[in-house]
Amino acid sequence: MADITFPDHFTKTANDIRTMRTRGAGKIARTAAKAIADLANSYKSDDLKKFKSYLDHGAKHLLNTRPSAISLKNALRLTLGKASGQTVQDLKKNLTKISEDFIAHSLKAVDLVGQHGSKIIHDQDPLLTHCHSSASTSVLIHAHEQGKRIKVFATETRPWNQGHITVRELAQKGLYVTLIVDSAVRFIIKDENIKAVFVGADTIHSDGSVINKIGTSQIALVAHEAGIPFYVCAETYKFSPDSLRGELVEIEERDISEIADPKDFPKVRFRNPVFDITPAEYVQAIITERGIISPADVQEIIKEKFKEVEEWSL
Fold this sequence. Notes:
By secondary structure, the chain is α/β, with parallel strands linked by helices. About 45% of the residues lie in helices and about 10% in strands.
């Protein structure tokens, strides 16, 4: 199966992830889980060995779209790695069910994160968030729906301006929300007397350190300086089992055209890192679907969640 041709719908899904038409760790994970099940159901032969090889190639094709996205990798682990069957049809059926269950659990997890996190927010709290995270906005929306009159300040989050998604979503839900430039964080935390920071996560390592949108670690440092809690909102499938083996996420750098046209800046070099690392000591707590945990608890949850998952060479 050296030259594999995938169905158009699968190729488009992979390309949408690569080009960030599909973005956000949770959405990428759910998209990958559905894509691998759809790929399975498109397979026409009854050769089980070749079928598994076909799925393995498909999984690797998806992984190559965003190599540093642990949510994508874990989605494939938790679907392919748990699927079984003695025939092609049995494996298709089992994989489809597991994929559907993963997607349902992912969506439910976001709501549970919101329920747990909203309990630590007080009425009239001014709060700060960064980028766009379904988990962190769930916390804020739940707090608002409980009648807590919070004020939310959201960074624009260059260069993709994911903060625009955040403020529109929160405003539509009726929250008091203000959009700020990324470099205004320290000023706003002091000037608005921000009480806490809530962010999402792309990946959480076994030592409790957090990979998230570039700028997150700077905000954590400012929060530490100000003496306010910095909370990370994340589903547990964003925890990295690779980190137990010392394999940490390699920070992705994207094309410089996202930030400027190099032709306009002769002799100027550019860098465009997508994520940064926030050390565990700056994280007050991690808000998960299981509840609010310490960064020190991450390692045990990883061992429990992924202990029965086969690697499928991912």
